[in-house]
Amino acid sequence: MAFQCESWTKSLAIPVVGLLMAGFWMAGCSDDDDDRPSNTSNIGANMYANGMQDGSTGLTATFFRRVNGNDEPIRLDLADERDTILASLNGIIQNMTERLADDIWVYETSYSNANAEDTQFQIELTARSLDLMAVDSFLVLPPASSFSMPASGSSVNVSDTVNFVWNNSGSESPVTIESEGTCNTGQQVTFSESNLPDSGSFAIVADQLAGEPTRTDLTECTLQVTIIKQRDGELDERYVGGEAIARQMRFIALTVVYAR
Prior knowledge:
The protein is mainly β and 260 residues long. The chain is 10% helix and 50% strand. The chain has two domains: 2-140, Sandwich (Immunoglobulin-like), CATH 2.60.40.10; 147-232 and 247-257, Immunoglobulin-like (Sandwich), CATH 2.60.40. The protein contains four helices and 17 strands.
């Protein structure tokens, strides 16, 4: 906790001698979580745990600074370990590495054999560059399911009904079914139906799943379909805003045929 004492003493701009005389220094440097300073940097975070079909779970985090009501993406200073972003699972701690995606810095890591229901992950940020320590963000995976649905790589006719059926249903975790893809005409298509109840089934006409594209010269659209079950997590209260969400995610590739 030396970082905590040093950085916030500087930010308060009060001589250490004065703090000692006031009896404040020892309280400010306590290991007790309640003694950590509140967030003064307007930093927020979005964190996700994505449980996958192969048994792994990927963790991602992005950070932003809230300025006049606007959220501006920021990059951590990982050089010389000035900032650290760590993930943990059952005492197994991993550094989260950075990559740039669409002008946003994403911090990520993954754990194998870790997609079971109620698996809990913790993400801890210690950032000297931001004068922020936020170590109490938690993500707990919702129930996993096995799905009966078209085989990945298969084709369906535009007027066919596409059925998604899954087991281990009845939880309070909402379900999202979404798709995105490209048609032979170059059209980019999307579809999303969110906050569905975990009822164990969902049916939709193939044309709707493909986003009902314009029919002129259309023969087929190739989609990636994603089925998501999610559960809200707990974002450290020192963040000014954002979200923490744990998800079970399954994917299939599907071609919708309009003309032969």
